[in-house]
From TrEMBL:
It comes from Paraferrimonas sedimenticola. GO terms for molecular function: fatty acyl-CoA hydrolase activity. It comes from the Bacteria. This is Thioesterase. InterPro entries: 4-hydroxybenzoyl-CoA_TE, HotDog_dom_sf. Keywords: Hydrolase.
Length: 132
């Protein structure tokens, strides 16, 4: 991995409204789906019994409408790494037009201890490869 992760999504008919716009509630779902390679860095194999991430929050900026019938490109990068948390920025495009951006705060989390825990150096190195 280097720089940005890029994935393409084909909007489904059920994600649109009567004006052929993509419903705004779909953006966080697409963003979570395209963060899967980052989840793999923390939890290879995506084993739920050893899950170690939690979403602390996210913000979606809507810049323009998006439409049914045109593929969506999601570009993902790491925009900040802290001690136990990190930030993922995802830019969404149809063609060359950016229509949304989501910034998600993620926390490396120990569910048994019920608290955050420092991000290991090996994982930090992999996150650094995705820093824009």
């Amino acid at each position: 991995m280097s720089g940005r992760l890029v994935e393409t999504i084909t909007p489904r008919f059920c994600e649109t409204d009567g004006l052929q716009h993509i419903n705004n509630t779909v953006i966080p779902v697409w963003c979570e789906a395209t963060r899967e390679p980052i989840f793999e860095i923390f939890n290879p194999g995506l084993k739920m019994e050893s899950w170690n991430l939690i979403v602390a929050g996210f913000e979606v900026k809507l810049m323009a409408p998006s439409f049914y019938g045109a593929e969506v490109r999601v570009e993902t990068h790491i925009s900040r790494v802290g001690n136990a948390s990190f930030e993922v920025t995802q830019d969404l495009y149809q063609g060359d037009r950016q229509f949304a951006q989501q910034v998600t705060q993620m926390v490396h989390y120990d569910y048994q201890a019920n608290k955050s825990c420092p991000i290991p150096e090996a994982i930090r190195a992999k996150l650094a490869e995705l820093t824009a």
